[in-house]
Write a structure and sequence with these properties.
Elements: H1 12-26, H2 28-35, H3 41-63
């Protein structure tokens, strides 16, 4: 359970923003979206590999 301490005089909007940020960091929403559809393990590996290639190209461009 996520707990957000609210200080005296702090607005509700600010507390809500903290809650949303904490909730997003836990990765719950991302996991729920991933579980809505099944992806084959081979497709997961392929996507991971393509992402790694993309990131490596970006790093190579920064080094130049």
């Amino acid at each position: 359970m996520i707990v957000v301490p609210v200080k005296e005089g702090e607005s509700i909007d600010r507390a809500l923003k903290k809650l949303k940020r904490k909730f997003e960091k836990t990765g719950v929403v991302k996991e729920v979206r991933d579980r809505q559809r099944y992806t084959k393990p081979s497709m997961e590996r392929r996507e991971k590999k393509l992402k790694a290639i993309y990131v490596q190209k970006l790093r190579d461009k920064q080094e130049e």
